[in-house]
User: Fold this.
Amino acid sequence: MRLSRYFLRTYKEAPRDAQTPSHILMHRAGMIQKLTSGIYNYLPLAWKTIKKIEAIIREELDRRDCQEVLMPAVQPSDLWEESGRWNYYGPELLRFKDRKNADYCLGPTHEEVITDMVRRNINSYKQLPVNLYQIQTKFRDEIRPRFGLMRGREFIMKDAYSFDTDDEESKKSYQKMYEAYTDIFTRCGLRFKAVDAATGAIGGDMSHEFQVLAETGEDEILSCSKCKYAANVEKAVTVRDIKKPADAGKCEVSEVHTPGAKTIDEITDFLKKSADHMIKTLIYLIDDEPVAVLVRGDLEANEAKVQSSLGASAVFPADEETVKNVTGAEVGFAGPLNLKEDIKILVDEQLYAYTDMVCGANKTDYHLTGIDPERDIKPFKVGDFTFAHPGEKCPHCEGTLESYRGIEVGQVFFLGDKYSKAMNCNYLDRNGKEKPIVMGCYGIGVGRTMAAAVEQNHDEYGIKWPAAIAPFEAVVLPLQSNKEEVMDLAEKFYSELQAAGIDTAIDDRKERAGFKMNDADLIGYPLQLIIGAKMIEQGLVEIKERSTGEKREVKIEDAVNEITSNLAKLKNQ
RNA sequence: CGGGAUGUAGCCUAGUGGCUAAGGCGCCUGCUUUGGGAGCAGGAGACCGAAGGUUCGAGUCCUUCUAUCCCGACCA
Assistant:
């Protein structure tokens, strides 16, 4: 491509509202422009990178016998009512009506549509397994879109769905996709970790996230210093040595007047006891049912663990009115004893290492002291309902967990029969018996993958694209556009590099040398072939590798071979 | 949805209630220049987010609305 004719404008300054490197640099490099909050134009340079990422995805999936389809972005509400998600998905689902007043939504994901498609076409075990995928624009009306393409409302996603006869077969499909994802992100040139993940509202009981490591990542990952264990902080578990205290059961429960002391801080001050001796009682609405979750006062409740422990679809902190109804007191005085309503109580296991604790009395301005959790609280379930922390012990070896920031670019889920049961997606087995198809689903954020690559590969001058997904693999930079011998040689290299199968741009704009070099660094072509008048006289040109900044002089006749082999090396890194 | 901030040309910014809204980048014309975002001269481009209000006079003060961003809550 000739830059003189290319639809491209670069900027020296970042737009005021851009904060993160990927957003700033992709905007400055003329790749993306915001149309409105969380919604972007992809300009030619960005679209080239998107298409390269998509090509890698297609190759890796197609060779594993996945089949590409395309489903509609507009989906009718009845499918969502059938799966039960029309009511559960919340305002993130953009809903609208057509002229006949029928309900529709813009698809944030396609489990409903694909399940419907498969049940209409698959009847027999002979047709399984099958894996279908699409690359398509999704819409989620995020409360707070941010960081450019990192969290947009409209975004390009690859979503794949596997259909198998039973759990065992489905887990093979899952494993196959896990391997495909590993190959895809490796080929994209990204440094990433596959981590254990919570399943959230999509359901199912096994999931991994593919996290690109970058300081600006929104997710926290805990990873073992010795073994391969890695998990999202929501999911991570550690080995905890919980010993029953020697004086357990000796304390006596008594009620104390604690006027106005609602928060853990206020109570620790008031009673002169440390926060780890407090029992924090949180009332949640879990699938519309109030539930109390008890954790130590100095710890946070982990809603993802609560959700998966109960197999629930939705976990929300209860509203003030519900809390008052359940406890019979103002917010701030909830406790596990004498609740007004008989609700499920989840107890975090770490409470059992303590005795003589403090909790709310379910009576405004009163707390209870002398609580022994094991003796006094009747749990519905005891388990791990808090977060793991860096420095704690790995559940699989002697190592300790370390913290990283990550950008989630892909996630794989084992779904089981959650959707196939709800939507009657069945097959007949060998014995003529009807069974639900076992599903898995697999997503990759394509635009987010591009943004993550920039987050991970940039410097103060611009982007350093991994060669496999760079918009162009190389650029020819004639430094003196007024000198015929420079331009002629540049043109010659341009055609030779293209003939060698290299995706090449030529900066034939009538600009000065510094301007072109700065633009090249900003846009981040992996290799620059720099052609200067003085070097030509010595029979030399220069090759600059963007990722290392290394420049080296080569003979004119060797340049094409040098570029070819250098590029091959970059792609194999 | 709570807290905070900001809307002035395509982009970045300046602008005590007072003349025709200023500068840089970018854009157009000409000359000059060509190894790290050149120089000179000329030019185009703004109903100052919107609507009300206060005032002799509003980009500036007040009210409402709206948009965008940040923190939080939320999030396959």
